Amino acid sequence: MKNLYCSLFGHHYKVSKKITYHVKEYKCKNCKAEMTINGNGALIPLTPKFKEINTVLSYIHKKRLEKGQKLFMTDL
Predict the structure, then answer these.
(1) How do strand 43-45 and strand 34-37 relate by DSSP bridges?
(2) For the chain, does the N or the C end have fewer beta carbons within 10 angstroms?
(3) What is the b/e burial string over 48-73, where b = at least 16 CB atoms within 10 angstroms of the residue's CB?
């Protein structure tokens, strides 16, 4: 029934996870379909390959933020 709703009215995506400032994972409120942003900025289905890529990208992004914060704190 939920897939029927989405096929008639379209998906209603909500951000489920913020990977970086630009890359996010989305989940449909009705049918639970998961999507992510590719390198060109287009929504694509969240496959296991892209889930792994997003995990690594999130790890790298967090490390860079921590490194930048440490540099900022030592400058003060």
Answers:
(1) antiparallel
(2) C
(3) eebeebbeeebeebeeeeeeeeeeee
- Residue tagged 């449909």 (tokens): 28
Which pTM value belongs to this model? 0.81
Give the whole-angstrom CA distance, residue 76 versus residue 59.
26
Rounded Cα–Cα distance for residues 21 and 32 (Å): 23
Q: What tokens does 18 get?
A: 């913020």
Tokens of residue 58, six digits: 């999130």
State the alpha helices, DSSP H only, in 1-76: 2-9, 48-75
- Interval 11-57: pLDDT, tens: 999 999 999 999 999 999 999 999 999 989 999 999 999 999 999 99
Other C-beta atoms within 10 Å of 35: how many? 19
Question: In degrees, to the nearest 5, what angle opens at C-alpha 59 toward C-alphas 56 and 65?
Answer: 140
